[in-house]
Amino acid sequence: MRPPPLKTPVLPSNASLNAPLITLTTLYVKIVGEVAKMYTDGIKYDGHNSNFANKRTVFEDVCRRADLLLKQYIRAFPIILKGLAQDFYYNNRLSDHSFVDSYKKLRTFFEPLKYLRTNLNKWNSIILDIIASKHLDKLIGEVVQLLVNELSEL
Q1: 41-80: per-residue pLDDT in tens?
Q2: Using CA atoms, how far apart are residues 15 and 4, in angstroms rounded to an integer?
Q3: What pLDDT is attached to residue 11?
Q4: Which of 23, 35, 50, 128 has a CA 20 to 30 Å removed from the CA of 67?
């Protein structure tokens, strides 16, 4: 018994042989465009005054909802960056790396600055007068020791 003959695909009558085919790259570009539409400037990461881990969580959720594959996240990653973070991304050619590596490089660069900035703000908010007003029963030497203790905990 002979197998059934193979059917040749039939192009619609209005299709041209020169018509562009939709490639995976074209599809990913469209998906990245959809991801970009979901981002406003206010939710982008600028390298300070925001939680980068939270920005990553939101980004990954948006990419999953847009059906972007993990290996394609790097194409959409610059969309969530602005200011210094975006400059760092392009100056260090992070598009040549995986999404996970690029995220780690950005986080390693900016998180220590955020940590230092937070501690500086805490340091600047610790004032001898405020500590003294909370401990009226203590001598000035004891209040200074409380100040030193509080500063050393940073």
Answers
A1: 888 898 876 788 888 998 999 888 888 888 889 989 999 9
A2: 27
A3: 47
A4: 50
Amino acid identity for residue 120 in this structure: L
Q: What single letter denotes the amino acid at residue 113?
A: L
pLDDT digits (tens, 9 = 90+) for 72-121: 899 899 999 999 999 999 999 999 999 999 999 998 888 887 677 777 88
- Residue 55 backbone phi and psi in degrees, to 5: -60, -40
